[in-house]
Hints:
This protein is mainly α. It has helices at residues 2-13, 23-26, 28-50, 55-80, 83-86, 89-93, 97-104, 115-131, 135-153, 159-162, 175-185, 195-212, 220-235, 245-252, 254-267, 272-298. Mean pLDDT is 84; it is low at 1-9 and 17-23.
Amino acid sequence: MACVRSFLSVFQMHLPGQGGGAWFGYAVDVFFVLSAYLLGSRLLAEREATGTIDVRRFYKRCIFRIWPLYYIVLAVAWAVCGPADRRLIPAFAGFFGNFLVGAQGHWPAPILVPLWSLCVEEQFYVAVPWLVRSRRTLRIAAWTIIVTSALLRIPFFWAAVLGVGDLTWCAVFRFDALGVGLLLATEPKLPKLSAPIRWAVLAAGAYGIVYCSQAGIHLMPLIAISAGVIVLAALSGPDVVLGHPLLTWLGERSYGLYVLHAIALTFFRWQAMPALVVTVASAGLSYRFIELPCIAYSRK
């Protein structure tokens, strides 16, 4: 549910005339929180079960989960983008395109836009297996990430005056959402909430993102916490709506939905309905013929 909500928010943000307020651009923080929670939980379980973490296997799985479709999208971008955006592709290929885009201070071609958040994720993946020593040390690391990210952001509240571009793209300025996800992962047992309370908590998290996003970089820690509240609500128990098979199906294919939607929107000249249909269909095909075989190979 959290993945699907984030995808739909980002999809709508990329429609012409549908920026709808800055909050759409921060819906991706829900992805960051959920990703960090899942990774942190799995790594903690491995550490507690075996006394160690197979870092090589972790990196292998991350590579085969993210890279194949990511580089296919980059190849499409190289074929259809203009010279200015092509110059960004080597940076994205090395997973530091978010820094370059942040420094130049304007958005790249729409096809490349979803990839900045994957750069942030990959930068996080490099560090996360080394942080998981115990539940306590991971909790300390999570708080350190949250606080450090917030403190590093303070001098750049005046980014426009300093002429340093849009720093919300940079890794350290979005790591607090990942820290919130790790913090959730350190909880041995998340609370179970009744359906009415769960939906109230989810609504509170969504409102927090909408409200705090009006201040942009100044309230990003609260945006990260609001994203964490949404993920907590989604994980707090079974639900007729949240657990619907269609949402589960879409959630499994959320990676393809996220990285392929901009290609579909570009191809259909920003016509929402055909682009959405093709995005869902192409994400299904990607999951079946690209992602699942790569996931299976990574587990060998």
